[in-house]
């Protein structure tokens, strides 16, 4: 009977094991025990992962000996990639140390620079000593002959390494899913870069346009044929999903405005970077160091007013601003020095909208105030000036002499001023109940659901040009600071055109805990003693108790 029970138990165990394996093979589930659900993929990421039907290899360069904060970033990156790989075996990843086998660190850094993946130099505090380490916070995802770079570290002005890593971990799922999105899905949507109204030249928007080309088809578009064949011009414009107006300086005709209005009525989306004041820093580089800021009339007042906003011909003077770089000396003795310049606001984010969540400050130059008006459209202020702002009317003389003067803080009392406003909903035509400039077929007075983003400064999209080559948008070449202009604009375009909801991943909040470096250094020896001696004491107590137990058991 005893043997029968044994065989029965063995049989039941075998049946249970087989059943468990069958269930595991057919039902897949992972449990995330973290409080913030950091390892639970968002629906948009899951959709991208499930559509990856070809092998994708992700090579991560975040490997080597570096500070604890970056070890945390490496570990979080590994765990996030494991989560992606667990849901689709086509996704593989490896970690590589670019500096292994005693490679020349500077030569390796130059190679990464050329590929558009600049390394990060970080300060290492260990045993009370300070040193510098080179970190390569990048990954490259490859599918067939397609490659996409993945930035793993977010730069934030004035942030500590802990703050930078914490911000980077927040965006890990987004940057990885975004890279997979580029590889898995072919480009479908089309963007028109508007021309013909004195917009910025190609070289000064090249950085952003090059980035957009990774997601969308891009083409220039002009409204020059509007007076001759407006119907055909409108039909051609409707083929694009979004238009970009990058700092127009010439007034729009009624024909052009009507075409743009009907494009919006047909559901077209638009990104306007326009300003109501004519002023450039280059105009100050004269013997007097002075220039006049003058109102600029683009004949768009009624256009934006009908949609519920107004761009006022005033300048934003903001204490929280980026410096102006001025040269001193001559020849080899030339020095470039930063000075306070309150006409270059560094904008804040008054809400946690996905477009501006967790991005660096966006740099404006001679920005204007935007008023929001009452209508049925939903209006979201994405960017605004700081509370210490002064609104200045125009015409106004601007002088470089202000860099040497202390600002009168008492006069900066106008509060936060909207600088970028997102409009969403069903738009009403500018020409409803008005005489149309020309007749077109199927004229619309009400749009379907669509979006429009209006930014009161065209220079937000403008990149510097050095030796005929465009520099990275947002990069200040003399100080090395990087502003969030490109990330902001890219998020905005993705938000307006993204059907998969990928941009929503940016709203995910993750809490990262770090050790206190000072406290760690002060209590290092205490915890070393505890970690060495305490386990030995516990082991000794266990051995003593076990020995007593054996004596009592066998003495009986």
TrEMBL record:
Residues 188-492 form the ABC-type uncharacterised transport system domain. The chain crosses the membrane at residues 527-549. Signal peptide: none annotated. InterPro entries: ABC_transp_unknown, DUF7088, Motility-assoc_ABC-rel_GldG. The keyword Chaperone does not apply. Residues 36-142 form the DUF7088 domain. Keywords: Membrane, Transmembrane, Transmembrane helix. The keyword Cell inner membrane does not apply. This is Gliding motility-associated ABC transporter substrate-binding protein GldG.
């Amino acid at each position: 009977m005893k043997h029968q029970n044994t065989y029965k138990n063995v049989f039941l165990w075998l049946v249970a094991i087989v059943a468990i394996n069958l269930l595991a093979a057919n039902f897949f589930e992972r449990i995330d025990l973290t409080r913030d659900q950091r390892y639970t993929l968002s629906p948009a990421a899951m959709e991208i992962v499930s559509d990856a039907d070809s092998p994708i290899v992700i090579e991560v360069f975040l490997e080597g000996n570096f500070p604890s904060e970056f070890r945390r970033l490496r570990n979080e990156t590994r765990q996030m990639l494991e989560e992606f790989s667990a849901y689709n075996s086509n996704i593989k990843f490896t970690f590589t140390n670019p500096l292994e086998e005693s490679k020349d660190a500077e030569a390796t850094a130059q190679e990464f620079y050329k590929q558009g993946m600049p390394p990060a130099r970080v300060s290492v505090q260990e045993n009370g000593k300070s040193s510098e380490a080179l970190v390569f916070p990048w990954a490259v995802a490859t599918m067939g002959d397609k490659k996409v770079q993945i930035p793993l570290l977010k730069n934030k002005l004035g942030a500590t390494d802990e703050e930078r890593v914490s911000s980077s971990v927040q965006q890990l799922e987004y940057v990885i899913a975004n890279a997979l999105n580029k590889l898995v899905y072919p480009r479908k949507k089309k963007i028109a870069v508007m021309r013909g109204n004195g917009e910025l030249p190609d070289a000064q928007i090249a950085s952003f346009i090059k980035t957009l080309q990774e997601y969308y088809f891009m083409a220039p578009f002009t409204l020059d044929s509007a007076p001759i064949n407006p119907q055909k011009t409108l039909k051609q414009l409707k083929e694009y999903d979004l238009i970009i107006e990058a700092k127009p300086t010439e007034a729009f005709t009624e024909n052009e405005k009507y075409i743009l209005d009907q494009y919006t009525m047909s559901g077209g989306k638009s990104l306007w970077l326009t300003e109501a004041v004519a002023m450039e820093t280059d105009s100050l580089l004269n013997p007097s160091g002075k220039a006049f800021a003058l109102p600029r009339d683009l004949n768009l007042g009624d256009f934006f007013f009908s949609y519920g906003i107004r761009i006022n011909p005033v300048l934003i003077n903001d204490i929280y601003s980026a410096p102006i770089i001025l040269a001193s000396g001559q020849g080899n003795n030339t020095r470039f020095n930063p000075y306070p310049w309150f006409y270059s606001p560094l904008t804040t984010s008054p809400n946690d909208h996905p477009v501006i969540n967790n991005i660096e400050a966006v740099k404006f130059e001679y920005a204007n105030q935007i008023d929001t008006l009452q209508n049925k459209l939903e209006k979201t202020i994405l960017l605004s000036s700081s509370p210490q702002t002064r609104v200045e009317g125009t015409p106004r003389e601007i002088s470089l002499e202000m860099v040497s003067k202390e600002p009168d803080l008492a006069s900066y009392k106008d509060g936060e001023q909207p600088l970028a406003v997102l409009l969403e909903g069903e738009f009403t035509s500018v020409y409803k109940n008005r005489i149309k400039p020309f007749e077109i077929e199927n004229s619309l007075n009400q749009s379907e659901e669509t979006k429009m983003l209006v930014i009161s400064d065209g220079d937000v999209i403008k990149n510097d040009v050095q030796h005929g080559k465009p520099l990275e948008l947002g990069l200040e070449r003399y100080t090395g600071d990087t502003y969030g202009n490109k990330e902001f604009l890219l998020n905005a375009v993705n938000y307006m055109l993204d059907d998969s909801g990928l941009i929503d991943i940016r709203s995910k909040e993750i809490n990262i805990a770090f050790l206190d470096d000072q406290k760690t250094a002060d209590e290092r020896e205490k915890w070393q003693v505890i970690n060495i001696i305490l386990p030995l004491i516990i082991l000794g107590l266990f051995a003593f108790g076990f020995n007593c137990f054996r004596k009592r058991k066998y003495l009986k």
